# Entry
Amino acid sequence: MTTARVIRFEKTGGPEVLASATLDIAAPGAGEVLIRQEAIGLDFIDTYHRSGLYPVPLPAVPGLEAAGVIEAVGAGVTEFREGDRVAYPSGPMGAYASHRLFPVARLVKLPDGVDFEAAAALMLKAATVECLIRRTFRVEAGQTVLFHAAAGGVGLIACQWLKALGANIIGTVGSEEKAEIARAHGCTHTINYNTEDFVARVREITDGKGVPVVYDGVGKDTFMGSLDCLSRRGMMVSFGNATGPVAPFSPAILAQKGSLFLTRPTMMDYVATREDLELSTNAIFDAIKAGHITASVRQRFALEDAPEAHRALESRATTGQTILIP
# Structure
């Protein structure tokens, strides 16, 4: 029996509903391993689960990505062994813990050269970027794209990867400090949406043509403006709700604004099978090895300080990636 320190919530609400607890964990069952977690990723989806925006069964331990070391293996597990360095990018939920049981079907080995903090910071976010720019809308060299929140955890990875693909990136940010960070990670043009009209600037940068794709994880505050940044038959990729969910609207708006396409992907559907999980994580590890993407861990919190970490993330006080240390 292993005793794990966890963060859990018994009701939905603000960061204050997160509380420390201890849980006894049994030996791993068939197809499972016990992981001692070394670093845990913090993601906006964690706040959606906690707030109730994305309902989950309660009580719950949040978190979908982490990295650590296998301490025990269950029956039938042959592809992993005790001592393996491992990580996961897509849950199941329960990452806010010092130890946890995990199904091997959703687990990958960490290659040499990728440390625990980088893995925890990158896995879910890089898997999100991979599905956005390689499979939702496959970006080609020379294309100009708009990526909102370019200095955020997903945004910095996207800027690096898009630059490696030869794309031109227009990134929105909330301050000049964040603009500098985004540019340092490959963003071609930055727009401070607090002081500039991002629609007008995108049209100016593209000589009035607009962009073929907008990646919008901000939500309601930018959605309609994002549609106005698209070129004819452009694709709107709405993948997050940092400022709240998008309000209902008539599909006719898509026709009026240039026969636009709209998709609302979730990374979980792009790594739902073992084949897709390996496709995505192999692409991430290849990009890391090639130097195309690197972790930018700019905030570290102790696991017990998860409420403070959530407050920092939701107030947009963070840049790059944030991790929790058990």
User: Anything to note?
Assistant: The mean pLDDT is 95. Residues 116-136 form the longest helix (21 residues).
